[in-house]
Amino acid sequence: MGNSALKAHLETAQKTGVFQLTGKGLTEFPEDLQKLTSNLRTIDLSNNKIELLPPLIGKFSFLKSLVLNNNKLTALPEELCKLKKLETLHLNGNHLRQLPAAFGQLSALKTLSLSGNQLRTVPTQLCGLRHLDVVDLSKNQIQNVPDSVGELQAIELNLNQNQISQISVQISHCPRLKVLRLEENCLELSMLPRSILSDSQISLLAVEGNLFEIKKLRELEGYDKYMERFTATKKKFA
């Protein structure tokens, strides 16, 4: 992409606070964006070939939304965790295996999408994020859901299309969790904690495509309690 085209995008971004450059075959984060660290509220560099997010990302202190879907990122810099105003982070379709240690410092984060990466577990760092609403970890390589998940503040957790065969009973203790998606995993019915049905806030449990028939789920003790929550929630949104 020519310099003049990039310059035009930078000028627009300076006025609007939005820098969007998708599907241009970029192999690196545009260094020129440094000039706009105090202007930018949104950066969208989806569908490129970016392999590294440089440490300078930490300088965009007013950034609210960062979208880097379908790139070639294998890791994220610790500096990303300095973005105290970041509310939306979309990193679907990359090659991420883990999150930076300080990820829990992204205190304003509400929406996190990491679908189609190479995560092997639910990152414990997510448990420190108090404003998290939606977490999408679908299409990863997660095999179990650890005890730390009980601290998660999210309202919706999407774990579809992983390799999950074990779930900690602590998931029932998530204080705000209403929607739990576990479709197309490796769950036996005996591995699904009963307390999800009988003693949690979860009002939508999606478990199609596992190693049991849905009608067997309906026979479990506590299913009627789950259905009460499910119906009440449906009425609320009807």
Automatic annotation (TrEMBL):
Source organism superkingdom: Eukaryota
UniProt cross-references to Pfam families, sorted A to Z: LRR_1, LRR_8
Cellular component, GO, one term: cytoplasm
Annotated InterPro entries: Leu-rich_rpt (IPR001611), Leu-rich_rpt_typical-subtyp (IPR003591), LRR_dom_sf (IPR032675), LRR_domain-containing (IPR050216)
UniProt entry tagged with the keyword Ribosomal protein: no
Assigned keywords, A-Z: Leucine-rich repeat, Repeat
Protein name as it appears in the record: Leucine-rich repeat-containing protein 57
Organism (species): Cariama cristata (Red-legged seriema)
